[in-house]
Structure formats: C-alpha cells, structure tokens
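Quick look at the format.
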Amino acid sequence: MRQELLDHYDEGRVTAISRDVAGAIDAATFGAGSWDDVPLTLSRAFPGSFGLIYNMNFPEKRLNFLSVQNTDPIFATSLAEHFAYINPWAPFWISKKSAFIAASEEVYPARTFAKSEFYNDWLLPQNKSEAAAGMKIVGERDEAVHLLFHFPLTKSELYDKVGKEVLSRVRGNFERSINLARLLRSDVEAALTETALLQRGRCAAFVVDGSRLLRDANSKAERLLSAGEAVVTRNGRCHLTDKEADVRFGATLEKLAGGIPTNASRLAFRTSAGAWQTSLAAIPPPSSSGAIAALLPPRRMILVMVADLRPRVVETGDLAVLAGLFALTPAEIAFCRRLLLGESVAEAAERLAITEGTARTRLKAILHKTGTARQSQLMLLLSRLD
C-alpha cells in the first residue's frame, strides 16, 4: 500500500478502525477474544505505533493488568516491572475524570520530562515514540483502566486528531465493558467475603482490603465496631484503637494484600477496655473466570478475627441435648462444640486430632441428622441451643 494512502484517514477509514477496535473490546468483554487484541487492533491502524491497555492504581502503585502490543516484548516486561511505577504522566491522569480522552502533545508533551528515566530508557528506544493519545475509564476507588497508543512525534499532527476521534467513538463500548467487569467483580468479592465469614459466626470477624476498607462483617464484629473498644472505623476504614498495634495492623494488611509473605498473622494489644488479639489471613482469590475478569481482577481481601482475651466461660453444656434430639454421638457433639466456638472445619479437626477429611464426613452426618442443608443453618440451630 502506498504511503500517501497510509497517511490519509478519511471518514470511511476512521469508521472502519473504530468498528474494528469496538469489536475487539466487545469480543474481550464476552470471552470471544483477548484483551491483547484491543491495543493490537488500535496500533495496527496507525503504522509505526504501539498500543497498550492497563489497569493501574496509581495511589497504591499497584499494576492490576497490562497488555502491550506491537513492540518488542522486552519493553512490556520493563514497563510491568519498573517503568509503570515511575510514569511521569501519572499525576496528569490521576487528576482527570473517567472517560477523559487526550493527546499528549496537546496537554502534557513528553519533552516536559525529557531528562527522566522513563523518557530516555523507555519511550525513546521504541522508535522515538514520545507522543501518545489515550483514554481513561475509572474502575473503582483510585483504580483506572487506560487504553492508548504511542507513536513518533513526526506523526502527532495526524495521529493526535484521528486517534482522539477513534477513541471517542469506542468510548461507549469501553465504558460498558468496565461497568460490566465492575459488577461481576462485586459479585465475586461478595461471594468470597460471605464464604469467609460463614464459619466465623461465634467470633467477631470482618473483611477488609489492603487499604483497610471494610467490606463485610458478621454481627459480632458489627457490635465490636460500634462499641469502639478494640476496633473503630474512620471514613469506612478499620483501625485498631491502640496506635502502635494499628501501625503493625496496617503494615500487615498491605503485605497480605500484595501477596508478600509475612509472619505477622496475629497481633495482641491492650486498651483501657481490656486485652485483644487480632488474627489476619488473606482470602484466596478465585480461579480465573474469563477475559473480563482479567481486566478488573478481584482485589485481595483479608479476613480479620478479633478475640477478647479477658477471662470468660464459654457455655456450651446445653449441646448435650443434641444426643436426645437428633441422636448425635458424643464425637459429633464435640465437633459441634468446636464449630460453636468459632473454629473452621480444619481448625476443629486439628483440635480434635482427626483428619480434615474425617471432619468433613462428620459434618455431613451432622447436617443429615439435624435436617440442616448448610453449615450456616447448623450454626443457627446450635446458637439457639447454646
């Protein structure tokens, strides 16, 4: 194809490019394609450019998703490992609202930071592609998804105008995709928190993310938070009432949310109301559920359990009536007692010196005898007897 044809973008060609990019977005959204196809389709429409799509939480410096196409893979790797976190354009994008579209030469030219490592070691080596046009769609809570393409400065006069036009025409497709991904992620995260709290009905337990944001809590935790003796919420975020313990609590949450190994799984502290212990555990993420989930993956959440260390007597003697009511064996009653104390099936198995497989078999037998279909129903029954 002759060069003059490549450099000429009439209405028909702009329409065709927009249709192809929109089609790639829709295909990725519903699992018929990959998100890699979106920046690849965009960059192929503009010779000499490379495209990328990424989900970045700039305040937390966390890269959730990245796809770089039509360039040497080494630059994709270096962006993921280093340059995404020192991007001089980050403050500009943070300041903009969702659905914002811009060309760098018009709002924030790369030569503004010409002495930076990002400019000299990442932009220039890629065919001097210091110009760009891009779009931002807000995911949720400081999380933004960007679709953009970079190109040499010599092409900016043409590519700026056409690129913004194409991005404006596919903006609706991109917004719908992100909105759907957000809804699906909310459902997944709600299911994860519900499962995590299900077996913790007898102790104060709540779920937060790495930024301390409270996601869910059981009734005991709600009462604990309302009392403000051990844990309080400020602007929806959980804090321990002891300052020193709270610093360690925040550091542990950050590591667990980032998948960083830490030995600080339990924190003990004292307040004027008494002595407390918090136990923290990262909730395992679900298995992948398609391309749309990859773009906005479920955030890592942490289960927090709070125990009051003041001496107390746990009354579970009434469980003996289970023998007469449901013909439960002493071993099955002992197992119910462990569950009633707030232990998981695995923890109860360890306490009773049985295998987890045996414990689950015992639980099934108890559910059958008591006529309860789920463990949550069993816990409700036991709580009424306690």
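Next, a different chain entirely:
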Amino acid sequence: MKKTFLFTLVALFALVLAACGNGSASSSGGSSTSGSADGSASTSPSNQKGVVTIGYQKGNTLNILKEHGNLDKALSEKGYKVEWKVFPTGTVLLEALNTNNIDFGHASDGNAVFMQAGGHPLNYVASESPYPEGVALVVKADSEIQSVNDLKGKTIGVTKGGNQHYLLLVALEKAGIAPNEVNIKFYKDAAEGLAAFTKGEFDVYGTWDPYLAIVENTVKTRTIVNGSGNSENRTFYFATKDLLDKKPEVVTTILQELQNADAWANENKQEISKILSTELGLDVAPLQKANDRRTFGVQQMGEAIIASQQKLADKFVDAGLLDAKINIKDAVHIDKSVIPSNIK
C-alpha cells in the first residue's frame, strides 16, 4: 500500500512538472495570442500599436490574469494585442525577458537575485503580497525533531537558492546553528524532493505551495517552521527597459488589471482553485488550502520591500551562493507615475 501510494504521489508530481515544462505550448516559451476577454484572437482594427508579450508560469498570478481575461480586453481597447508565453521556471522566463523575447513577466525572489548577480539587466516594477505561510520546513509526524533547535546533525532537503533554502538559513541563524552543523542536501524538483523525504533520505523537507499543501494533505507531517517572521516569500513583476521607456502606459494597464484580477481572486478563491486545478492537473483540495493562506495583491517597490529582497541577496552571499554582493536598488527603475492608483 505504501509503495503504491508513493508511486502515485511521485508520479503526480512528475506529471505536474512535465505539464509545466513540456505542455502543448512548449517549455521554451509556448505562446497563445488573444485580444478579447474570452481569449479569442481579436479582429478589431484598433489593434494597430503592436503586440505585448507576457511570460508566465502555470499556477502563478499572471496565469490567473490570463484566465480572467481582463487584461486582454483592456489592452485591446488601447490598440494592443496580448501574446502569452508559458515558461517552466522563473529563471528561463527572466532569460527571455533579458533577451527581449518577452516584454513583461513574473518570477520569484531567488530567481531575480541570481539573475542580477549574473550581470543581467533587470527591472523590478512591482511585488506580489508576501506569502510567508506558503513555504515551510516539515518533518514526519513521528520525528523526534520538534523545532529548529533540534536540527544539529540532521539532513535537510531544499532546492539550492530556493525560498525554502533561504528560510532554512534564516531559521538556523535565529537558532544559533551554523549551516555547517547540519547536512544540507539539494534536490532538483518537487518530485525528487518528495521521493527522497518519503524514503527517509531527509530528516527535514523544505517545500513550498502548492506542493507544501499536497504534502500536508497526503503525508503525516508536522511543520517545524514556516516563513512567518522569517521570510516574506515574495514574487515580483519585471518589464523590459524598452517597455518601461517607450510604452509606460502598457505597464500601467498591466499593473492595474493585475490588481483587479488579484482583488477578484481574493473574493473567489474556490473558483481560482478550480482554474489552477485545470492548469496544473492537480486536485482542487490542496490548491484551496494553499490559496486560503495567502492574500493576493500587487504592491509598489517601496523601501521596505527592497530592503527585504536585499536581505535575501545578502544571505545568499554569506552562504556562498553568490560570488559578490549586489544592490537591489540598482534594478528598481520604475517611475512612480507609472504605478496605477489602485496599487499602494
């Protein structure tokens, strides 16, 4: 029974990852074009100003915006057609942004830090609301580990440079435990991590939503620490310099409609869970659990948010993940006049 359960669960994870990376739209950035709220190609003569290409990952807020359809309609009314391109990871998405293959996109805090550290131009335009409960370190329910204070000599599985890696480093520092006093093992994706944790290769498993919610719903675990008070677990929105300089009104419209879609998502979390279930090929229940513990919303790149992202970057320098210190402010260029009135 246990073997069958494990096989089924790991196969599910593999299926999800394959769908995200090798779907019909292509892992290198498959695209769909739409110019109307229902996603159909618009034949309106008003679409004369060009195409705005937006990169997204399945399951994130830009995916919600795409499915909601309000941005396609808003930009169509301004003379633009939207082309949506799906990417398997934030790193690949940011590479496409850097080469002007897309105009706008969304990626994680860690993705952005590593891209900037690699010397690639980056333009933060806004942040999603913090999601601290969406990342955690968990143990099996019968584990002797009760808190972070018990981690000396234990093996912890995380993705290198991921949100759970950052959470681990912060939690260890607070507990007065040096990183070299634990055994940190890196896994490449959620399927590999879950399999290793289930087989006992990790004492502690670092993971993130929606996979965290899946683990909580299917395996008897306990959370020893999550992001609350430790990691804001933010994601960010980025644009090319060309889009910011030449078409700032497009950035304004994207951010405005993102906020509108996020507000709708907060009031319709069951519907959002069903939409994402279809997109990701996952059961609704864990997605509902994940959505219930987050608040959707776009925020300006204010000083506090920049400082939080700087703290993450500095922590990765201290851990030897980055070769040199970077300055997050160097990648924040958006003019306040571009921010729509519905974003604070």
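Residues 137 and 321 are 20 Å apart (CA to CA).

See the schema section for token definitions.
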